[in-house]
Amino acid sequence: MSNLVIFDTSVLIDDLRKGLHRERIQQVTGLIRNSSVVLAELRRGAVTPADRDFVRALEHDHAILTPTQRNWLESGVILGKIRADKGFGAQKLRDLHFDVLIALTARSHGARLVTSNRADFALISLYRKIHLEIW
Q1: What is the CATH superfamily name and number for domain 4-134?
Q2: pTM of this structure
Q3: Could you tell me the end-to-end alpha-carbon distance of the chain, in angstroms, rounded to an integer?
Q4: Tens digits of per-residue pLDDT, 27-50?
Q5: What single string gives the DSSP state of each residue in 6-73?
Q6: Do 35 and 99 touch, CB atoms closer than 8 A?
Q7: Measured between alpha carbons, how far is 128 from 43 in angstroms, rounded to an integer?
Q8: Where are the domains of the chain?
Q9: Rounded alpha-carbon distances, angstroms, from residue 121 to 54, 57, 63, 101
Q10: Quick check: 59 and 31 in contact, CB under 8 A?
């Protein structure tokens, strides 16, 4: 297992909007890496200049990991299994897709994935083992 750490969008949004995890983020051990999927989600939701500055700082401060072709293809397989097992509709599967990509990217690099989105990532971890830390 590497000592890489990826923060999910949920943790970073909680920190940006409410300062919830600031101290924990600063005390985390390991090399922080960004997920390009997380950065895309953050950019999509960046409304204020401060939001955009926050995202730019993340992009500048930490290397960015991107899903591979294998990750993309595997995400479709996993989502198909989740649909079959849980009966989720298209909207829920679309909502899960980026989370699956974030999880698979972290898994590919042996990274610990830190999230506050317990429900979705606990579900994903039933289909692919990931090193998950829930705050």
Answers
A1: 5'-nuclease (3.40.50.1010)
A2: 0.94
A3: 20
A4: 999 999 999 999 999 999 999 999
A5: EE-HHHHHHHHHH-TTHHHHHH--SEEEEEHHHHHHHHHH--SHHHHHHHHHHHHHS-EE---HHHHH
A6: no
A7: 27
A8: 4-134
A9: 24, 26, 23, 11
A10: no
